[in-house]
Amino acid sequence: MQLEQSGYRFADRRYAVPTLTRLLLVLILLGGLGYGAIYALANLVEPRKHEITIRVKKDGFGR
């Protein structure tokens, strides 16, 4: 088997992964993890219900 330099990190092409494929794989993996985190927050976390009181100043009304 003759090894050649062709821009691959490893000289043996059976184990070399092109840079674009590796980039796409990482982006898809990160997107899947983000989607899973948002899905888990939306469906598995129950919000706490409590009353909130906000005081509004009268300065902005009645101009």
UniProtKB/TrEMBL annotation:
Q: Identify this protein by name.
A: Uncharacterized protein
Q: What keywords are assigned to this protein?
A: Membrane, Transmembrane, Transmembrane helix
Organism, by scientific name, is Roseibium aggregatum
The transmembrane residues are 20-42
